[in-house]
Every structure is written in C-alpha cells, then in structure tokens.
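Our preliminary data section would be incomplete without showing what the modeling component actually yields. Below, a chain of 389 amino acids is followed by its predicted structure, encoded as tokens that our downstream tools consume directly.
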Amino acid sequence: MFEHPDYAALTRGQMAVLDRMNAGETGLPVLHQIVRLAQDSLGAVGAGFGEVNADHVRVISASGLCARALGRRVNPDTQDGRTLLIPLSDVNDDYAQQIARGDTHWVLGARAESAGAVVGTIFVYFDDRKPGPEHSAVVELLGSFVSRLYGYRAGLPAHGDGRQEDRDLWVAATSHELRTPVTVIKGYADTLTNHWSSMSEDGRREAVRIIGARAAELARLVDRLLSATSEDGEVGASQAGPFDLAEALRAAVEELPASLRDRVTADDLPAELPKTFGDRDSLATILTELATNADKHSPAGSPIELWASSDVETVTFGISDRGIGIPPAHVEKAFERYWQGGRSDRGRHPGAGLGLYLVRRIVEKQRGWVSLRPRPGGGTVAEVRLPRA
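Predicted structure:
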C-alpha cells in the first residue's frame, strides 16, 4: 500500500471517468473503471462495489483480491457516516473472514447515494498498513462518482432503464415452452396407441424414448415455474453434504438432452477436485439451465466448454460459450425473475426468463454464488462457486 494515495494516477483516472460520463456512457463498464481506480490509486489489494437491493447487498463490481466475490451476497453496511474504516476481524461476513485469514487486515468503505437513498458502498481492502485520512478522502470522492453514475438511472441493476417486464410476453413464452413437450408427448402417445401393431420394435422403443425425454423436459419446466412463484420457496429437498464435484458434473453431462450433450465439452475438468459441500442432486438442474442458456445464445454447433477449479475456500465450475455475449449492463439483470434481454440478446429462443433466476436461488441456498461475465474474444462465462467441504 502507498503511504499516500497515488494522486497522479487518481487525477488521470478521474479525467478518464469524467470523459466517459460526459460523453453519455453509463452503467457497469464505468462502474468497473471507478472500482479499479480505487484499488490502483490507493495501492490496495482489492476493491469492489456492493449494491443495495430490497433485502440484501450484492457485489456487482470487483477487482483484485475481491474479484472472486462478483455476484455474491454480502452483509449490509450498518455503520453510521459516509465513510467507514474497520478491521476485517470485526466484519460479520463470511467472505471478509476468508480474506482476513491472509495478510489483509483493513476495509475502507464509502456510501454512494442517489435521490436521497443509499444505493451501495464502494469498499477497498488493504494489507496490514492502516489507511489514513487521505485514503478515506479518496474513497469518499470515488463514492461521489458512483452516486453521480446512479443519478443517470441507466445501465445499472438497481435502476436499469425503468422498463417493466411485459407479462403478456412472459405468459406467451412460458406457454410456448410448455406446449412443445406436451405436443410431442401427445403425438407419440397417439402414434403408439393407433399404430402399435404396424410399428417395428425399434420404432416403438424410439417413440417411448422420446416420450421419456420430453416428459423429463416438461418436469423441469414445471419445477421452474413452481420455484418462481415465491421468493422464499424451497428448491430441492436433498440433504446437503460433501461430494465429488468433478464426478457429479460428468454425471450431470450425461443427463443432458442428446443435442445439448453433444455440444458440451468437459476436457477442462480436472481428474480430482477438493470435496464440495452442497446438494449434489442439484448439479444436474444447475448445469442443464446454464448449458441451455448458452445453447440459446450461441451459434448451433459451436462448443460449450465446461470447466472447474478450486482455491482454499471454494470449488468453482463454469460454462463458457462463444455466442453473442452479454452486455455488461445485463450481467445482474439476467438473474431477475421473468427478465429477458432485448431482441438481440434472446438468441434463437425467447425463453421465459426463469432459468438463471432458478440457478441463483439453488446456488445461494448452498451458501455459494453465481455470476456472469463477458468471455474474452466473444461469448459469455457463467461461473458458480460453492464452499469446500
């Protein structure tokens, strides 16, 4: 950490941010630049921004040591005053406690306000050198930049563009998703009923196989709809415990529909990973939703890559596609119930806007978190982190 803030870097960074804002740029790309500026100008080990939602705070931008917290829920800030400096050991949050086990000891934060309400906190993590008043002043200054950014009320998750979801569109899309497997099941059932004696053994087996596959798809759709009826409803009933994530992911790939299974490559799955703590049975649902989402928004036949890794606290897996990508302004909105992107974001199928919402609920019930980010070179990366056993 610098003894004093790097004022030259701060000045250059301020000018760059102001130029973008004055040119009409808003949203997460500018927020990311402010967060990175906080880390660089203060010589910190990490920085981020936690956005206040109705009942929680979520990290929507992060850099450095904090980057892996992107998409995670954190405890709300209950301190008084615009800025706060506290030892990490005093923070009642799992993620902060994990960081405090290393050489990081201090967190400095500043609230951002818009229209008289707190929209979030920009926070900066330091090593064992305690930040001084100059550092607090810089964080408060950058917090005011975030406040101004939220004042534009565009491109950020909490405010967006004010657009309310068209429920007629949702009903139409949901009806379409349900109608397809029902139609196929009915058609093949009628074929078996009316033409059983004239069909070959192979033909009958194929018809039964298709009915089974479509029934499984229909059951998944019904589960999604039931899970979406309540914010507090339970998702899954399996008991959580230690399990082998790599083995569970390989098994989940085998449960994917054939057309989707052929696109998913699991070459980057390590032979062994530390044991994961969670609901093993939920992996099939999570992987199906993420892979289906990647399939909808990427060219037919292009690879969908499944990978996994681990660190001292978490085990991570993800899906990477090479599709149309996700605008930074949509990486959080995509997890909202019933939310759908613009026409160019929807790929070949409109969907009902429930898949990613369901994934986030399942993962967070296991004390994990999930995030989306653009893939370098084009496409989207969906990343899930679960606690190590």
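The first helix runs from residue 7 to 22. The longest strand covers residues 117-126. Preliminary results of this kind motivate Aim 1 of the renewal.
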